[in-house]
Amino acid sequence: MNIVELAKSSSTWPNWVPNCANLACRRTRLWQTVWGRREGVTVSGDWYCSADCFEEAIEIRFTQLLSARIGLEEIRRPRMPLGLLLVSRGVITTEQLRVAVDRQRELGLNMGEVLQQLGYAKQEQVTSAVAAQWGCPVFSIRTNNLPFQVRIPRALLEFYGMLPVHFVEAGRKLMMGCVRGVHHQVLHMIEQMTACSTLPCFIAARQFDVHLPAFLRGAANQEVTFEQSSSSLEMARIARNYLLQLGAEQVRVAICRDYLWTRFFSRTKEFDLLFRQASH
To answer: 10 Å Cβ neighbour count for 249?
Structure first.
């Protein structure tokens, strides 16, 4: 069959390659059908026939996300301070709280760390109180069988002080263990990128320190973090390069206040790009 016959018959082919979602795409429908199948990539349900079209589209998407980021809230603070909550529970006295407040101002640490350093409260008591502040359960990690199959970039785990601690395949429910507080926007981003329903809980800082290295080892060669803030154009060009290197067929992207996260899916692996965003 020559190219003319191929063009005539293409209209009767099953619609196994959609139209390129880039309205400015300069390639013909025939080219998209014949060659786009090899190069095409899906981004949030939209298909793009080439790396060129992907770069143009992802730059627009990055710009939109960066604009939406301005309205994202910072972490919400509990109404009752941790020290007062521990006083109400009888864990510490008001005099011990005054000493701890002075020490906190001196050292610049959070109240939970100060109380433990002074020997006024145990880590389990602090963890239980912090969980109560946020209205979340406490989760005790009693096994090394953590949900490594749901991969979260190590940069996010370290920065926000959280770990995946439990996963239920039915309904894809993922429990994220927090140490310092609940970052709801980060949990929402994880939901978008992993297709899991995320639920917050609290874990002891000691358990976080013990189990974090295993996640860091598992993330080796699967992610790159750019710590310097970049423009949408620069990030789009970087994303295009990784798209071609990985031969990715699908891309997801989401944002929180501190990071823009892009995940590439190829036939053999997943790979993450994280772009650190400057503080407002």
So the answer is: 15
Specify the 3-state DSSP secondary structure of 227.
coil
Q: Is the dihedral of CA 7, 11, 16, 22 positive or negative?
A: positive
Among 99, 134, 169, identify where a domain stops.
Answer: 134
Q: What is the pLDDT of residues 210-263, one digit of tens each?
A: 999 988 876 668 999 999 888 999 999 999 999 999 999 999 999 998 999 999
Pairing of strands 41-43, 46-48: antiparallel
In this structure, the answer to whether residues 109 and 165 fall within a common structural domain is no
Q: What is the C-alpha to C-alpha distance for residues 273 and 280, in angstroms, rounded to an integer?
A: 21
Whether 97 contacts 121, CB under 8 Å: no
pTM of the model: 0.83
- Burial of residue 237, with CB atoms counted within 10 A of its CB: 0-12 exposed, 13-18 middle, 19 or more buried: middle
Sign of CA dihedral 47, 43, 27, 240: negative
Residue 22: closest CA among 57, 68, 72, 61? 57
Exposure of 86 by Cβ count < 10 A (0-12 exposed, 13-18 middle, 19+ buried)? buried
Provide the CA 273 distance to its chain's centre, in angstroms.
Answer: 10
Domain check: are 169 and 203 in the same one?
yes
Which tens digit of pLDDT belongs to each residue from 158-167? 999 999 999 9
Residue by residue, DSSP assigns 23-91 as: TT--S-HHHHHHHHHHH-EEETTEEESSHHHHHHHHHHHHHHHHHHHTTPPPPPPPSS-HHHHHHHTTS
Angstrom distances, CA of residue 106 to CA of 80, 82, 109: 22, 18, 8
For 189, the domain range is 154-276
